[in-house]
Amino acid sequence: MNRSRNPLLICLLTALLAAAGCAPAGEAENAADHPRTIRVPQDARTIGAAVERARPGDMVLISPGTYHETVRVPTDRIVLRGTDRNRVVIDGQGKRHNGIVVTGSGVAVENLTVRDHLLNGVLVTGMASQDGQGLARGSNGYERLDPKEFPPLDGFRVSYVTSARNGLYGIYAFNAQNGLLDHNHTSGGADSGLYVGQCKPCNVVVTDNVAEYNAVGYEGTNASENMWVLRNRFTHNRVGMTVDSDYLEAFVPQHNSVVAGNLIADNAEPQTPQQADGGFGIGIGIAGGQHNIVRNNRIENNPRAGLVLMSSEDVPPIGNTIDSNAFGGNALDVAHAASGRAPGRGNCLKDNTLSTTAPEQLATQYRCPVAADGPVMESVAPPTTPAAPAGIPFRTVPEPPAQPQLPGGADAPVRDATHLPGTVDADNVPVPGRDLLAEHTRGAR
């Protein structure tokens, strides 16, 4: 029996669907094709509430203000953007653990400030508990986390973010692949300003960042294969940067990263937090790292050593190439300090500007090319002078200077963090000048 449609009934049903947050199928499909911008606080009172409403492809756009919340981003392909990098502040007040925790793939965080958290400013990780809490080294008592149980996060970007006074890491990518950390400023990190850990292959680029007044500027722990650290300024930390193997994370040994075109200078700053390992006065430390390339960097005025090759427990430094770097003003330019338990071999130097090495004949005796399985290299004791001064509490590190905005600001094109890092030309990165990114620093005190 044919029944005519009742227009009143259709209207009532449509109204009920709208009230319940539903929409007819055609309208729902149309909405899914058009990513939305959810504004804070105009459309959602908190950043977390806006993220909960967001669908893949949406942007959460945050107006200036100080936000006292931990922001968790479990949804894929969200863009989390501040309208003003220096005035959108996620403030941990010295009592919340993390500022932003990203566990969704393809998420971009950009143009804002995170400060004063007990652990991390921004944590990007493929490891998350059932309640959405990000898990990473340091967040769980240093229990070793299994990437087979937690597959790595696929795709991330942290750009034009300022991280200040965070008690573990400023910007931290752990068990995450296919990403980009660029144009960030980190200071006051009680462990390191920037950290990439437990990835193989990483497919990660760390570029055009400033890390100063941290315990360590940058750490790459068990970060291997297609891992590039390019054109950064690591100055006025206790240690400029480290590349290392560590059994507290998966994928030992660390291997096959490229460190090129960075300024690594003046890393003996007493007005910094003291890292647990107590490092001080070193530009680059390679501890148990293998088959890495350190090329075209400017490494200056580090009062213990410019670059030290060391062992990490039973993991030796093997097959690292130190090529075409400009050393100057260091107590030692390069030192080979592998232990008798894990002696180094196959490391080599070529075309560097050098004054001093330890052992003294290091540059000539181990000039590239050297076979990675070559004879054991002579070692010296790691440099220990000058003595490391006591550190300062991380929350007492002064404010960083105002930092440049994301080009285009709030109106910049919305780009999620997929298909990264793109083409990388690490072979043609030149030796930088002393002025690399100097306009974005506090400078010497």
Shape descriptor reads globular
Number of domains: 2
What is the strand tally? 31
Query: Could you tell me how far the N terminus lies from the C terminus, measured between alpha carbons in angstroms?
Result: 89 Å
Runs in which pLDDT lies below 50 for 5 or more consecutive residues are 1-5, 7-31
Structural class: mainly beta
| Number of separate helices | 4
Give the fraction of residues assigned to helices.
Answer: under 10%
**What's the alpha carbon Rg, rounded to whole Å?**
24 Å
Strand content: 25-35%
Mean of pLDDT = 91
What can be said about the biggest beta sheet? 20 strands, parallel
What's the helix and strand layout?
Layout lengths: L6 H13 L5 H8 L4 E4 L6 H7 L5 E4 L2 E3 L3 E3 L5 E4 L5 E4 L6 E5 L4 E9 L4 E6 L27 E12 L4 E6 L1 E7 L2 E3 L4 E8 L4 E4 L2 E3 L3 E8 L3 E4 L2 E3 L3 E6 L12 E4 L2 E3 L16 E6 L5 E3 L2 E3 L4 E6 L10 E3 L2 E3 L5 E4 L10 E3 L6 E2 L3 H4 L80
Describe the overall structure.
InterPro entries: NosD_dom, PbH1, Pectin_lyas_fold, Pectin_lyase_fold/virulence. Residues 1-25 form the signal peptide. Residues 393-445 are annotated as: Disordered. This is Nitrous oxide reductase family maturation protein NosD. Residues 436-445 have a biased composition (Basic and acidic residues). With 445 residues, the chain is mainly β. It has 2 domains: 47-140 and 154-183, no CATH class; 196-401. It has helices at residues 7-19, 25-32, 47-53, 362-365; strands spanning 37-40, 59-62, 65-67, 71-73, 79-82, 88-91, 98-102, 107-115, 120-125, 153-164, 169-174, 176-182, 185-187, 192-199, 204-207, 210-212, 216-223, 227-230, 233-235, 239-244, 257-260, 263-265, 282-287, 293-295, 298-300, 305-310, 321-323, 326-328, 334-337, 348-350, 357-358. The protein has a 20-stranded parallel beta sheet that branches. An 11-stranded parallel beta sheet has the order 4-7-9-11-14-17-20-23-26-29-31.
